[in-house]
Amino acid sequence: MSKNTVLLVIDPNNDFVDPKGSMYIPGADLAMEKLSKFILTKGDEINSIYLSQNSHLKYHITLKSFWTIGPENKGVDLSPKDNTVISALDVKNQVWLPQFHDYYKVVEYLEQLEAIGEKNIIRPDNCIYGSWGWCFPDHLVNSLNEWTMMKGGRGYSIVQRGLRREREMDGIFSYKVPREDYKPAHSGLLVNILINYERILIAGQAKDEIVANTIRTMLNNSLVDIYDVLGKLVFLDDLLTPINHNSPKLSIYQEAVDKFDAILTTSDKF
To answer: Which range marks the domain in which residue 192 is found?
Structure first.
């Protein structure tokens, strides 16, 4: 009897997977072309498909439009350049200031972010809600629609993440700095996937960032028992593209294999 299988595709936004994208990951376009073919050739073995879609409003704390130059800034730029690190101290010293958001809440968030060893880094505008870069590649959408017809009209599900403007998510299911009055992002989906499926196929971008962080959340959370994860995860390695091939975050894949009986394979061997 075939296993009840879900395919989880993480952030296949054009801005990440198309060479014209603002944060293109080299090789991700080829990986997503393979994914589209995989959905068609193995679609009869896939019961459900979930896709996460990174979604930002232009006014987001990791984007330049969130910020404006402060009175103590001696530079000439009215907004920060890409890859600028904005710290809590920068805001306190009025080097950079939030344009519209509450000053004290921003300082509090940045302090909490820095306390866990993270930084608020300004990125190129990416995955802006409704833009081309926010959308998925046409060939992937076509494959998803063909799969829908193959499965008798069963739909695929898209989970949008990142729309909360004042804090950054580190995966599908969690924020870098959670708040007590926020439920874990999409926690219901996490529980549903881990409990209701016998096999969880994982593909998407970037292997060493959002995908790795999502896997870590799946393996280390209080919402489900370890036995809800054991032996279920299947990493389709040729459908995962890292930004940094030497990133220490990549160790989560071997940890999942060693401790949770995950499988690391490729789409052609599945």
So the answer is: 5-56+133-265
